[in-house]
Amino acid sequence: MSEGNEESSTSNESPSKLYPDLPEGTWKKGDGEKGGFMLNSCEDMALVIKAADLAARRHRFQKRKDVRQTPYINHPIGVAYILTNEAKVYDGATLAAAILHDTVEDTKTTFEEIQQEFGQEVYDIVKGCTDDKSLPKDTRKQLQIDHAAEHSHKTKLVKLADKLYNLRDLERATPIGWDKRRVKEYAEWARQVVSRMKGTNEALEMALDDIINRLLSK
Ligand SMILES: [Mn+2]
């Protein structure tokens, strides 16, 4: 057995035993990495599951715009998964908000409900990710560009992961009713929004740059 196995042999021990200096219910992934690497408490996990339950119920009759009519809920879950898997974001409020980010814009869910059930921080992030659908589409798109730089760090994370998910969908298959020109327009608009949120998360920004460049050069 190599020395490298020593560490993994202790991996099923309670994290609080491994890191006795940390408060109950939290532990750090790796040692001494940035603050964003703090793993969630049980309360955070419960918040994320509660968000998944509400989002699944509210989006239950909705489909994505692809030919295969993918259930809509695949999108918010996928956005949260981009955050944990690629951006290495484990903050409970950010992940719950990622799962809920389209519930107010696209279902009967209200901001008041999000605030009451999930608290101020999740509410703030969801609010930052919600377009005012009473405005014309072009205005909404322009407002996203205009306000991109003003959002909180956590809101920017969800917005970047949302864009990345949508761009990957567009690259995989052109949605019903879309042509190549519209796909390029979306990529160009995404480039403008994303460029105003630089310095938020390196992994997300690199993945976004790559896919936007690919879509624009097609
Ligand atoms: Mn979305």
Automatic annotation (TrEMBL):
| Reaction(s) catalysed (UniProt annotation) | guanosine 3',5'-bis(diphosphate) + H2O = GDP + diphosphate + H(+)
Q: Where is this region: Disordered?
A: 1-26
* Any Pfam family hit: HD_4
Q: Which SUPFAM superfamilies match?
A: HD-domain/PDEase-like
Instruction: List required co-factors.
Output: Mn(2+)
Q: What is its EC number?
A: 3.1.7.2
**Keywords attached to this entry:** Hydrolase, Manganese, Metal-binding
What protein name does the entry list?
Guanosine-3',5'-bis(diphosphate) 3'-pyrophosphohydrolase MESH1
Could you tell me which PANTHER family the record lists for this protein? GUANOSINE-3',5'-BIS(DIPHOSPHATE) 3'-PYROPHOSPHOHYDROLASE MESH1
- UniProt-listed InterPro entries: HD/PDEase_dom, MESH1
Q: What is its biological role?
A: ppGpp hydrolyzing enzyme involved in starvation response.
Q: Which GO terms of the molecular function aspect are on file?
A: guanosine-3',5'-bis(diphosphate) 3'-diphosphatase activity; metal ion binding
Keyword Hydrolase included in the entry's annotation: yes
Similarity-based family:
Belongs to the MESH1 family.
Compositionally biased tracts (Low complexity): 7-16
